[in-house]
Every structure is written in C-alpha cells, then in structure tokens.
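In this supplementary section we document a worked example of the pipeline. Step one takes a protein sequence of length 724 as its only input; no multiple sequence alignment statistics are reported here. Step two produces a three-dimensional model, which step three serialises into structure tokens for compact storage. The input and output of this example are shown verbatim.
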Amino acid sequence: MASVVTSRAWSYFLTNSELKPRSRVIVQSVSGGDSKRLPSDSVQMNGASLTGEEEKNGVLIDRGIREKEKTGGRVYAWNASLKCGVEKQCVRDVISSDLDVLWDDGYGNKTVKDYFEEAKDMIKPDGGPPRWFCPVDCGQPLKDSPVLLFCPGLDGVGSALILHHKALGKVFEVRCLHIPVCDRTPFEGLVTIVEETVRLEHASFPNKPIYLLGDSFGGCLVLAVAARNPEIDLVVILANPATSFERSQLQPLLPLSEAWPGGLYNAVPYLLSFIIGDPVKMARVNIEHRLPCRLQIEQLFQNLIALLPCVSDLTDIVPKDTLIWKLKLLKSAASYTNSRIHAVKAEVLVLSSGNDYMLPSGDEAQRLKSSLKNCTVRYFKDNGHTILLEDGVNLLTVIKGTGKYRHSKTMDFVTDFVPPSMSEFKYIYDELVGFLNFATGSAMFSTLDDGKIVKGLHGVPNEGPVLFVGNHMLMGLETCSLVLEFLRERNIMVRGVAHPVVLGEREQVSTPEFSFTDWLKVMGAVPVTASNLFKLLSIKSHVLLYPGGARESLHHRGEEYKLFWPDQPEFVRMAARFGATIVPFGTVGEDDIAELVLDYNDLMKIPVLNDYIKNATRSSIRIRDKSKGEVANQELYIPGVLPKLPGRFYFLFGKPISTKDRKEEILKDRENANQLYLHIKSEVEGCIAYLLKKREEDPYRNVADRTLYRALHSPLHEVPAFDP
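The serialised model returned by step three reads:
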C-alpha cells in the first residue's frame, strides 16, 4: 500500500537576530516502511521548496515525502541550518501550558473566500494518495493538547476548518485529511487510512482522547472508524453528517449525473451554491457586530460580491467525473456506517443545521441521538449545510460549551477549562446579555486596604487565590454582570460555582440550541462541589461563591436581600488551607427591575404546577443535606415576576480579608473559623445596607436618565453613579 503521510507544519519566530523565521515539519508514516533521515539539503528557507513539499496560502501540503527521522512515533524534519541545541531551546520556549484571558482566537480573520483561494492551490493533481496535513494557521498548540483529526466533506480539500484554524490550533494538535481530486480510494480504504492514524496515536498516547471531526461525508468516515474501534477513547464531532444520504436531496442527482453534458455541468456549481450553504451567513463571518447597521450592510454586500467569482471554482474542486464518483462513494459510505452504528461507544457531539437543503440534518440528529449511547446534539436553526464555513458557529466555543474538551478520560471543569477568547467575550457582552447590561447599568464599587470605598474594582486583589463571598439576588441575575465587569475592567477570570442543575444537559428538549447554559460553561462556571472549590483555590483562581445558593436566589416575597447561609463555616476553612483572600460583597437592585408576584408558596397552590415542581425538585441533585436547615430547602422552580422600568444594579466589594497569616488558628480551632465566618456574613450585610442607602443619591438610577447620558456623553460603563 502506498505510504500515507502525516505532516504537521507551523511557523515560529525568534527574537535572536541571527535566527530568521523557519518552519517546522512533522512527518508521520503509517505504512510501516523503513525509516530514513531527511537529507540536510532538502529543507530550504525564505520561500524555497522543501523536498516534496510546497507551502502555499498558509498550508503545507505533503507531496510524497518518504524520508523521515523517527522519534517516539513521530518524525521531525527541521531546517538544517538550525543547530540541535538551538532547536530544543526554541521548542521549549514556544510551548505553553495555558492561555491568557481574552486571547485572540482569530475568528473573523478568515472567510470563505480564503477557503476557495486555498483550495485552488491544493487541488492541483500530484498523483499522490490521501494524506494528512496541519495548517500553519493552527500554530503551536498548548502543552499536552489532544489530537484532532478532521475528515472533509465531498470536496475532499480538507480546508473547511479555515475559519477555526487559529482557535482550534491553540488547544488541539489539528490534522486535516486531504483527498486529491483524482483519487479513487474506496470508502473502506479511507476508513483504513483514518483508522491506522487513530491506532498509531492511541498507541503513542493511550491516556489521551482522540478527537474525530467529520463534516458531511466525513461524518460517515469518523463514525465508521469509531464503530470499528470501540476500545479507544474517541470524541466524535459530526457537522451535518451524511448518514442520512438515503433521505437527502442528492439522491436524484445520482442517476442523472452521468448523463449531464459537459457544457451543462459548468452551471451545476451555481445551482449547488443555493443549497450547499447560506451565502449571507458565509459573507457575515468577518463583519464586526459592533459596527453601525449601515456599515454592516455595506460590508455584507461587498463580501457577497467578492464571493460570486469563487462559485465557479467549484467545477475545479469537484469536476464532473469526481462528483459522479463521490456521489457513489457517499451512498456506500452511508450504507456502511449505518449498518455498524450500533457498535459506536464513543462520545458524540452532533452539530445540526436548520436550513440544510442538502440533507435532512435535523431529523438525522434526532435519529443519531436515539441510536447512540452517548450523544449530544446542538441545533443551529439559521445555518445551512456548510455550517463550519458560516457565521454564528465558533466550533471551539461549541466544544467548550457542551463540555467536550478534555485531556484525559473524563472531563474536569477546572483543569480542562479554556479561558474565553475576545470574540466570545464580545458576543456575550453585546449580544447574549446586551439588553440586561443596558437595562441594569451595573455600578461597581470596591474597598481599598485602608477601608476607603472607591468607584470601580481597584480594591480587589490581582493575585489569587481570591474567594468572593456574597448574596444572591432573584434568579442570580447579578452573576453575569459581575463576571463580565471583572473581565472588562480588570482582565480577571472569575470562576463561579453553580448548582449542578443549571449546568446540566437538557434531555427534555428535542432540538436543543446552543443556549445560555452552554455559555455559562464557556465563561468558567463549575458545579458547586467541595472538590471543585479545592481545585480552583489550589491553582490560585478568583472564585465566586454564594453560600445562600438556590434558597437565596429563589427566595420568597418579602425576603429580598435576606441571607440564607448554612451554619457550617466550611468555605472559611477551605480558603484558609490555601491562604486565600476572602472578599465579602453585596449587591442590590432586583427590586428595581422586577416585582416578585408568584413565589414558591403561591405556585404550590396551583395543582398542575404543584406536581411539576415536586418532580423537578425530587429528581434534581441535592448539594446539601436536608438536616442542614432552611438553606438546604432547594425547591427548584421559576418564580412569577412582573417587570418594572429598570433601575440599576449596584455592587460593593468589601475590604479584603487575608487568611494567609491566620491559617493555623483557623484550621486548628473551629471557633476561630466560626468567628471569621460570622464576620464575613456581617460584612456582606453591611455592604447591602450601604448600597440600599447610597443608591438614593444616584442621579442615574433610572434607565431613562442613563440612556440620555449615554447619548450625550459616554459609553454605558462610564455612566456615573453616587459618590462613595
């Protein structure tokens, strides 16, 4: 069998003036042939060719290299002008173990036009077999990142991830399968190629998961591999999988395809462009949502016009003979995969489009969910078949939000967390909770070490571990504002601990969209458990804790701003163990935006709702023992509220309390821990009382006054409040 070559290339840059930018290549053969050293003169720089390789438009395409230097299952071919000692130092300096908060994920920098330009270079015939490549845009992944193998759709190019290269390349070792235009490898042959790579990777790193991402036809490919390898830890991601081909719009094309005259086929791409994807969604990818509507519309029309010439390139990417072959290949792929789908044991995530006119992806997602043992579905109602090339779907965000990113056999909310990127922050701040931010206009105050109260968050320590302890308002509406303001003003990631029900999967929803619950995970929320709190403090995080929990956020009428805390000071002892700084805080404003009209007692008097609430509470996870008093009465329900003309949210962070110098006395003497606990509770109550009094002095407490001020003076976060 011809050698199937895996190549991974990325560029790195050195500050040393004597060392110019170079490219590093990893070549991996699955043919089992003899290993040979890559000749030192085969790697050149500054645009010169590599032996059997071409670098074009950010992608290094393998041209059949067979020479290799085997090292631990992978082959490293370096620019020969670099000395061994320098190369090792460079690798050690480049590889990082974590990401900065609000990092650049590159989403919006690439467009569908870039895909077509890249495809034109990659489809040039070379007579080679299908092979793996890694886009240079992916860069160097973080230390110990899992591998992600991408299998393309009918185009076979392997560049459909171009919008996601930079983001995925940070947390995955990305490899894309390229199937040449003239290649006629049968489906089982393609399965073997992917399977051999999976097994080789598993043999090298048996404790790491392997991610298989399949787009359309590639979905059949990765599912078939998963069915044949149930013992390997796989995470399978399907983007509108073609397992539903028998019920698709493509079926009538199969008997007609061979009869098409050559001249007529030139019009086929234009016909297919209407059903392949949503051109408006494709054109919106690089449009900044913060731009005025007029500028957004102008840029949208410019992007659509720029896409028109690219449509004709489809005839080169998928010529007539290739389309005929691939339609037959697709039919056999769907049949092969569906006959073995019962054997899939892998964790599966299905991305399903609501406007897919090629395949019945919505129905297929539900079929897969009912057929597979561990399957999660996310439904994107406004997207077309080419979901990975359209606006509104950041693949890494979806992976994080559904809890699918992990480094080992189980997902850990703490150690597997990837900080939010700048594009994610902008979407959440402007789109997801934009109206809430506008309506509540949060005013932040903090306390310096000398006890002085100041506007903003300057009194909060930069260095962790820090434990924020405060009161919940109705339904926890204040949490989003708190976390986002820390990101905006201080670039600090606050990890909130939440009731497990809030972060749970919505099994009762037939077509679950990517929802607010998923975004909570993206923003760092973790289930409230002692082990998670322990882990967060141990890595010096800023942690948000509400001792009153669900009882406080779902309080009854007349209980606004009343604390329902447990009697045990366990969080104090936990904080002292790590020498954490405890920052008590209070927040007010729920009575300015809504009136609670139906609380738990009222709803329990309604027969139908009575049974529903009882069942929901009975089936939910209890995080406190019933014997721990009223705070353990976690009745889960949605209260009836009546909106008001919005007022304002106010936050006051009290004077930081250090436990570093009191560690021994708190851990050894429970009475000292209890006294500190009561002091913290008293500080929270004091913050609440202070805000309730001072908000009466705020000239911009009403949303109308704030709106007028914004129109004349400054952005929302700069609207003044009372003088502290």
